[in-house]
Structure to design on (238 residues):
């Protein structure tokens, strides 16, 4: 018997023996006894399942399992199930457990609470597999997708949320611009009121001064221009 393997002895007169033969070299009676070799090392298996969530969304799940048989129960496994026990047991119990667990969660919870879903599947599947003499060393959800309609609905929801955020920003910007315009108008109105009060109190002397300053500046700018010529008043130009 090779390393990691066990043998069950079938006797033509007494049937399957209860004793399990371990690794190494053993003797058997030719023609009367026949060994059935089982691999007792952990082996991987991927099982895809299509099921429905609590909110009736189609979910595609792939479950990866590391399994091995219980050594002491190999005679019972061989007698009641057969050498291909993994083909007969794992697909059926995995599909049943996955459908049962996934039906407790809606689509959003399957994404946000994936660790909880995986742990619940592992606990239920390990307990169920033990009744068939199987040990599950690891149970993992390696693939989880939803139907086309649900995926498109999620994408449309994200686009709608982005558009709503953009519209809210535009409204807030318009409100701020409105407030700024009101404040600017109020400032201009207040400044005009102050100027009018000052003119009514002190007269228009300030305006005349500003006119003289403006005329002086204009005359200075014109005197520096080559296209401007000053002629004396009351004399013949020629």
């Amino acid at each position: 018997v090779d390393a990691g393997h066990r043998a069950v002895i079938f006797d033509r007169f007494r049937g399957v023996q209860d004793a399990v033969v371990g690794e190494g070299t053993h003797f058997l009676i030719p023609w009367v006894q026949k060994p059935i070799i089982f691999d007792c090392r952990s082996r991987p298996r991927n099982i895809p399942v299509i099921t429905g969530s609590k909110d009736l969304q189609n979910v595609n799940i792939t479950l990866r399992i590391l399994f091995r048989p219980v050594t002491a129960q190999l005679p019972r496994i061989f007698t009641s199930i057969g050498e291909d026990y993994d083909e007969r047991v794992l697909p059926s119990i995995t599909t049943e457990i996955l459908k049962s667990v996934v039906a407790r969660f809606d689509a959003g919870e399957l994404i946000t609470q994936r660790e909880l879903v995986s742990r619940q599947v592992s606990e239920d599947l390990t307990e169920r597999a033990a009744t068939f003499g199987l040990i599950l060393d690891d149970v993992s959800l390696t693939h989880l997708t939803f139907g086309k309609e649900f995926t498109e609905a999620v994408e449309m929801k994200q686009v709608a949320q982005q558009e709503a955020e953009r519209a809210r920003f535009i409204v807030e910007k318009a409100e701020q611009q409105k407030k700024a315009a009101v404040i600017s108008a109020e400032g201009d109105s207040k400044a005009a009121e102050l100027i009018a009060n000052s003119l009514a109190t002190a007269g228009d002397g300030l305006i005349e001064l500003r006119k003289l300053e403006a005329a002086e500046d204009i005359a200075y700018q014109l005197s520096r221009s080559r296209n401007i010529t000053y002629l004396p008043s009351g004399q013949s130009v020629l």
